[in-house]
């Protein structure tokens, strides 16, 4: 069985830019829209609500996911997220393990199983998507750099040189507001991946900043 890869712009077109007339369901974690792809296939598309999505929602007993790295194909579209090694955190909210819990490159160097470790993984994943580069990218390896350091060196002056040129469609003109939004997202990813756990932001702050970036970008 094969699965068709669908771009964000195709989803926008299929749902008429998420028009309310195509909204078919509203749930606790987001919204479901109907759409028709250019191939004629009718699909249902779920859009997660960052305010209410359960993955990082606060719980009395914290849960860490340990391996926050979805399967990214060549187009850098996420297909699967495997949280098979998620675990309930101990009372002290962090623990050390002698075995590797997670995928190398996505786990922080401190080796702590903690909420801040999940934030680190999220930041790395965010960089991959924004730059359309993998951790094993040949150009970055040839420069003896990791993905984070490669992006950090470009921030903020030459950041548009390292982000994916296809983040905006051909019809969209890249404006100063667009560049500010990209720079803000890169800064967010860098703040997620700081070296020490205490210096990283929380996932609650990530959601707040993402919403702020979105609102500023959508302002007319």
Automatic annotation (TrEMBL):
Pfam families to which the protein is assigned, alphabetical: Pkinase
Protein kinase domain residues: 1-218
PROSITE patterns named among the record's database cross-references: PROTEIN_KINASE_DOM (PS50011)
GO cellular component terms attached to this protein's record: membrane
Entries under InterPro entries matching the protein: Kinase-like_dom_sf, LRR_receptor-like_kinase, Prot_kinase_dom
Molecular function, one GO term: ATP binding
Alphabetized PANTHER family for the sequence: LEUCINE-RICH REPEAT RECEPTOR PROTEIN KINASE EMS1, PROTEIN KINASE DOMAIN-CONTAINING PROTEIN
Protein name: Protein kinase domain-containing protein
